[in-house]
Amino acid sequence: MEAIAAGKKSMAVWSATADAWAFAREGMFRESGAGSDVVVVDFWANGMQGPATIIQRFRRASEGSEFTLESVPIVSVLGELLADPQGLVERRLASGIREHPKGADLWQTWLGP
Question: Considering all CA atoms of the chain, what is the largest pairwise distance in Å, rounded to the nearest integer?
Fold first, then answer.
């Protein structure tokens, strides 16, 4: 909890001194009373009005099952969840993931059925 609080506090400092930053952590996403484990990534780059957030549900590795990412990532900009009926945000995220030298291969292994 302390590390997350410190990370969130640092976001304003980094926005004033860096060209871009990202802050990732594990969290819980509640919808209709039920909670899901999620990876949360806040990110910002010069020219953005404020940070945006990607929320990706996941299933933990446990006996007999491997870690998997579930569902389509949720994107929030300035605190508002984006509707993505055309899949543009999802395609842009996938494009960025494909550019990562290690993440691209790992991402494919993490995707659930």
Answer: 46
